[in-house]
Every structure is written in structure tokens, then in C-alpha cells.
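Quick one, probably user error.
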């Protein structure tokens, strides 16, 4: 195996980004709603490219913007960002980058997902996608990230605020994105097939002080920790000229962390437990109906 090298920020200490006593991932019992053949049953592994990066396909970036779960105050919302961003990226890929980007709201998941999820006290990607299957999800222009758990009421699912008062009210019939199915995937080959066929996934990883201090390169954990307590997004993969295989992933700790919010990690060895459990969801292909809020219509 080629030597793995990555850069570390020596000023980052344990607990700078991650709460080890109350992790943001609270795994629930896996649930699924699968209605179509899974990609690993029809995607031939030998047909997959050596490198696949949706951030640059023929010069086009098919990913949406990154986020920071740590501001305006700490919130254990990694699970909500991993799921909402992966699904947003899938929609952008399915629409071939067409305007407008649909940036789904992590805040609604924080407010409303109840099954083994506790808002800013941690949650689970499986439960998040199960919520989206049954309730749908609006975008960030309906409900932006506030890094705290609000009530799951219409006003906190999609709202508008009056320009001549400090009052906000719920938007009637807000634009909602729906999914047709969701499920889990594990193992290097299956994850690659899923991503190549249908887009990025949410995945769970273990966090170590060394990972917190990651500042670039291909990360390789040597502690052997695989007890997953954080959720991230896997968007693609690559192979170096020396033969080192790696995943391309997005974190939710801001662009001052890692490679502008992204990281690469060794692929094929279940490093940090990254290949043990991933969650995917399939957009139903129907664009939400954007319209003026009822209270603002002429």
C-alpha cells in the first residue's frame, strides 16, 4: 500500500469541532423504502472510472454550497447536513446543473425529525430520509439554519416575515421536494455503484483528534477507531498516481476546516468506519412549485 500523507493543523485540539461526550450522530435502527433495483445489481464494477468527482465534470460543478454546523453556536446537526446536502447534490446532478440550485433545509430536519433524533442534540440520517419520504422537505429560503432546535410547526417549516413589523407567519403551500425511496448501502464496491448511478450519499464515520486536526491530503486513521459518531457526505472517489485509493467527502465544519470544508480519506479499508453504513435517497423528479407566499401575494 502506498504511503499515505496528509497535513495537520497543530493548533487544533481535541474537542475543537466535535463533542465526544454527546456526538451529533445518534444511530437508529435502519429503515428503508426501496422500490427500484439497487445499483450494485446492475452497475458493473469494471465499468466504473478510476476517478469520479462531481465537483468537476467537464468543467461543471454539480454540488451545492457547503455549510458550517458550528455557527452561530454549536449544534449537533451533522446528520441533518449530511442528508440534506447529499440529496441536494443528487437533485442538481439529475437536473444536469440547471438553474436554480435547490438547497434543501437542514433546519427543518432539526426541527421535525423525531425518530431517534433530538435536533441539535444529535440525530440519524436514516430517520431524516424517512421523514422526507413521508413529509417532504423545503429549501433554505423557506427555513434557514439557526443552529438551535425549534418547534415543528408550520411557521418553522416555511415562513415569511412582514417588512413593516417584526411578525413572521407560515407560508401556505410551500415548495416541497419529495423522494420516492431511500435505503442503506455498505462496502466499497456498493457505495461506488450507488454514487455513480444515482449520486452522493450520507455516511457515518468515527471522529478522532487526528481527524479534527486534518488540514489537507488523504487522511488515514491509524488508531483503528470505527465506532461511528459523526455524519458526512461522500460524493466521489479517486486514485493517486502511486495507486492510493481515496474517497472524496464533504464535512459540515466550515470552509476553514480541511480542504475548504472537504476531505479525502483512504478508500477500501473501512477507515474510520466510513464504508460500514451509508444512507441514500432518490428524488422523485418533480420540481417544487415555487410561488409567492399567500400573505405577500398582491
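Nope, works fine. Designed sequence:
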Amino acid at each position: 500500500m502506498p504511503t499515505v500523507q496528509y497535513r495537520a493543523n497543530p493548533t487544533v485540539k481535541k474537542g475543537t469541532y466535535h463533542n465526544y461526550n454527546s456526538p451529533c450522530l445518534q444511530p437508529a435502527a435502519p429503515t428503508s423504502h426501496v422500490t427500484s433495483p439497487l445499483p450494485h445489481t446492475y452497475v458493473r464494477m469494471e465499468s466504473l472510472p478510476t476517478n469520479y468527482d462531481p465537483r468537476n465534470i467537464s468543467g461543471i460543478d454539480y454540488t451545492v454550497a457547503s455549510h458550517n454546523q458550528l455557527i452561530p453556536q454549536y449544534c449537533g446537526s451533522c446528520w441533518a447536513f449530511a442528508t440534506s446536502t447529499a440529496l441536494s447534490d443528487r437533485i442538481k446532478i439529475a437536473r444536469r446543473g440547471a438553474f436554480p440550485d435547490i438547497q434543501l433545509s437542514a433546519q427543518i430536519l432539526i426541527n421535525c425529525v423525531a425518530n431517534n433524533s433530538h435536533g441539535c442534540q444529535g440525530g440519524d440520517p436514516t430517520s431524516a430520509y424517512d421523514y422526507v419520504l413521508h413529509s417532504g422537505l423545503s429549501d433554505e429560503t423557506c427555513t434557514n439554519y439557526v443552529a438551535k432546535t425549534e418547534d415543528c410547526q408550520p411557521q418553522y417549516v416555511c415562513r415569511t416575515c412582514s417588512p413593516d413589523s417584526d411578525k413572521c407567519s407560515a407560508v401556505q403551500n410551500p415548495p416541497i421536494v419529495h423522494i420516492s425511496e431511500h435505503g442503506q448501502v455498505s462496502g466499497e464496491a456498493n457505495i461506488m455503484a450507488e454514487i455513480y448511478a444515482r449520486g452522493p450519499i450520507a455516511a457515518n464515520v468515527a471522529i478522532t483528534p487526528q481527524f479534527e486536526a486534518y488540514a489537507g491530503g488523504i487522511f488515514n486513521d491509524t488508531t483503528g477507531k470505527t465506532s461511528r459518531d459523526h455524519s458526512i457526505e461522500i460524493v466521489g472517489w479517486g486514485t493517486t498516481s502511486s495507486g492510493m485509493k481515496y474517497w472524496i467527502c464533504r464535512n459540515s465544519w466550515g470552509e476553514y476546516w480541511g480542504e475548504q470544508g472537504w476531505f479525502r480519506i483512504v478508500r477500501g479499508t473501512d477507515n474510520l468506519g466510513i464504508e460500514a453504513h451509508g444512507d441514500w435517497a432518490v428524488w422523485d423528479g418533480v420540481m417544487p412549485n415555487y410561488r409567492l407566499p399567500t400573505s405577500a401575494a398582491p
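The domain at 63-287 is CATH 3.90.70.10 (Cathepsin B; Chain A).
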